[in-house]
Structures
1.
Amino acid sequence: MMKELNILIMAALLGLALSGCKSTPPKEVCETPNTKKLESAFSTSKNTLSNRQCWNTFEMQFDELLNIAEGAPGKENKKKFRDFLRWSEQKGIVSQLQYKKMYTEYFTPLYVSLPRNESSCRAGQNVTQITRNMDNELVNKKRGLLNALGDTQAYSKAVTDRQNIALVLLAAGEACNVMN
Amino acid sequence: MKLKYLILATTLSLTASNIVNAQGQSQTAPTINLFPSTVIQDLKNSVRATNDMEKGMEPIIKQMDETMVLFKSANCDGEAGDSGCSQLKKQMQQQYLDLLTQMEGVLPSVEKSIKATNKSLAKSITTKIGKSKTPVQIQREILAGKKPLEEKLVAGKPGKLSTKFRKLLAIASSKGQSGSTVVTAASFFLETKQSLSLIEQTRAAIAQAKTQAALDLSLGTLSDEMINTVSSVKSILGDESGEVGIASDAPLIPSALESDTSFDESEDIY
């Protein structure tokens, strides 16, 4: 009798454990776009991300969308990505800050990696690290601005601005050292 | 050869045209004035000092050129016993010594004026950028300077120092100061810093060359160093035939972009 009871308890526990696993859907449920058509790819991603349980695939979706856009560059892609990111923000998949950061980082010449709250005197002492961060960001700008949008002007603006910003920060650091 | 390098490097490091190249005249309202009257005054002094240097050196260079032409046309190369050739050789050596002495004499005033410009720019940059702007704000300033240059100037192009300073002075004095003025000021500040160090090295090298020149004069020989130095000095004075083989050593100042990138989605930008 006791033996049967134990089996029942174990079976119940196993059942509970298995039902807990159901909160993570099978991998194939969170589909990523598998097409070369960007429009349709955005639809797939939106459809997938409409399932709250697939929100953790957001970055993967974004990356895949970029890959597809890189295969068919065009300035019109900018609006598509903006709409997608805005949609993701409105759905609560990403925060407003994340949305703006991603959009700026990939699709504008502006650098989000620059320090926002420290003086240039201070930043000037850390130019190497700041430049490194800008270089990393430039890799994403290349994917977004150049490869996905084909916007060579904006991309070269980003490249030039990176040099100019580094130059000004270096000068600020040196000048502040002289005056202190 | 070391002296030649230093003189050339000094020249190139002072190429204000590099900086001018980074300047974009914007139609937007001025936001930062990095060239207050003190900087303008120091720039004026630099124009004067470099102008004086050029004016003082030009006649000696001209004399040397003439003597050299005479020396070559008289087939004096390798003529050891010819008294006329010996006379010409001595004349050239003396002119070379004069050139070094002249250069040695004017460099301190050039150095002084550049030092003053460097200091006033340091003060201006510290106050108006270093302490009061964040890197993000600098980025916005730079972004504002998006109009093309009215007068394109080639980066690293050799030319008269005084002309380069004069061009920079014109930019600094212009009312259309824009975001890229920040880049101009920053570049120029860094260049003056480097130049001061090079001038110091050049002065030391000239002292050495003078010793060698005095020795050459007593021995009656013409050294390659002399020919090279004269060529280098010519390049300072704006003779574009002077070698500029170390142009790649000059700091790289990116040129202003002519593109007018629009940002209609400002509310979406971080």
Note: The two ends of chain B are 53 Å apart (CA to CA).
2.
Amino acid sequence: MSFRHKHILGTEQLSREDIELILDTAESLREINSREIKKVPTLRGKTIVNLFYEASTRTRTSFEIAGKRLSADTINMTASTSSVTKGETLEDTAKNIQAMKPDIIVMRHSASGAPHYLAQRVDCSIINAGDGAHEHPSQALLDLLTIRQRKGRLEGLTVAIVGDITHSRVARSDLYAMTKMGMKVRFCGPGTMVPPGIERLGAEVFTDMDDAVRDADVVMMLRIQLERQGKTLLPTLREYARLYGLNPARLALAKSDVIVMHPGPLNRGVEISSYVANGSRSVILNQVENGVAVRMALLYLVAGGDHSEA
Amino acid sequence: MSILIKGGRVIDPANGIDDTLDLLIQEGCIAQVGKNLNAAGAEVIDAAGLLVTPGLIDMHVHLRDPGQEYKEDIVSGTKAAVAGGFTSVACMPNTNPINDNKAVTRYIVEKAKAEGVANVFPIGSITKGLKGETLSEMGDLKDAGCVALSDDGRPVSDGEIMRRAFEYAKPFNLPLISHAEDLSLIGEGVMNDGFVATELGLKGVPWVAEDAATARDVMLAEFTGARLHVAHVSTKGSVEIVRAAKKRGVKVTCEATPHHFTLTEEAVRGYDTNAKMNPPLRTAEDVAALRQGLADGTVDAIATDHAPHHLDEKNVEFNVALNGIVGLETALPLSLALVRDGVFSLVDMVTKLTVAPARILGIPRGTLSVGVVADVTLIDPELKWTVEAAKLHSKSKNTPFNGWNIQGAAVRTIVGGKVVYQR
């Protein structure tokens, strides 16, 4: 089976078969990460530009390591979105990078739709590493890989995703990907953080976190961004933690084999208590580990690889 | 120089005329309307199969002159107007400098007279610098030629200022044109708040931002007894608020734009910045309500909110793109589409594009009465054509209708008795 997507703009465009291929490819590439010599020649001669318009340590590092382990030449470019209004336009930046003939641009941008804009204007492949509040496909895929490893399946599982759904690209990408894999997705957050019409995309919306977590197979907590939401969406973090924070008592409502996830970085004591984050149900660091494997798979498949060669 | 227009369907709502007639123009004015007219030496135009209407009037355009001539100017803007069948436009004051004083008003009036190909009626600002803080010198603005007042694009937030503006404008009989949006409710929104915004991950502008502001301004108009015209109504709620206010006898009128009665928020998919406007494109339910408002007379006028922007201001990420689209050259076919859809009659459409805006602005235009200035538009309602943005007469090409196959066009536009556009 071959992969037919030139770009990875979101999980919305991926089919169930695409997702299975990506996860299977990631699973087979994962082993490279535990070798003594963590490098294979698969993408030798390929150039990957990590074009990051928004601060990111984890995702950028993960993509960089993924590229390097496949022997691609990876270059990091950090740009300021202020240059969009003051200096060079996104199109000009893209065209300049294009002129240097990269094979893949991995892009993070604060504007929803920015990678789609770029994909229409350059010849190389674009991988969306997060656009505004829209999509973050590699995160959703690493979430699925982690769940599949722990549970042995995806079909039929119930996932509760709690936090600022409105501003979360992770929530949207997870929703598209998880519903395609036959999972039930529950969203829960304060009234100010649940976007209109989200049920129409297949999510079940809960206002009480206890109800959302009850009998769930997976609980995923989203980061509350103090800088973004501080103004009008919340009265206090104290109340947020009380109503929407994941603590051991609340976790006990979920299935006994529940796993706890978080895309990071954590706000300990706000959306997640340290007892839970450090506890036995937490798979947060497995997510990070799987992130490298999933990104290797995406780079490999987008660069024209075929699963049978992996 | 005389022009005799023979055998067209003359529609002149102000005079109750809808008949196959001849129309004679002499010395720049309407000389005669009737059957089997003859005039020695007159240029004869065969109008068989065409509509002959008063020159169309767009009461809401941005000509960008002075100050942003790279987007549009009075010459290019009036050329776009006549190509779309419009013989008169009323231009909003958000120029640079802002039209909040008689010097700017006079500049617009004089440049339009000297170089423009259509009539230009300036709209002065309600507050100085569009800052919403102190009232503009409305008496000066009226004397210099302003026909209405508006802080379009920068709505007056302060209720007290808006109240005083109504009170002060009332003796001048100048309508206040409200861009009714509560800025605090818009926040950082860039498209209609709702399902599509949720899917695209874009911040939303909720309908209540418009409805709440419309309601406030309607109440202030009622309270002061002054005249209010609500610009570019886009929500179901605003239509209902205006409808109810009219029933109570409030002196309120309103307009709808072709893009708001034609497109929905679905047009934003793909992050098309030519579908970004303010107020934003709404839902199918809102479009239906607007059409209902046009049908029952709640919506008095069709206006374009012609908002030219340079390619560089649209060819960017969606959230930083500027709001608005050019509208002068596509308004007529999009309005004719509503006639074909059975929303309203041809006479109603002509009313909303001629005599209705003329009456709101108090300008001596919009009719084919004998003796008035001969502004006349000849329309081929059946002509099929394809919108090509690059071929628009406007300096700016920001239209979401590029590539659309549409029907109906102005084939001759006559301003002051002269043919200024011929297709």
Note: The mean pLDDT of chain A is 93.
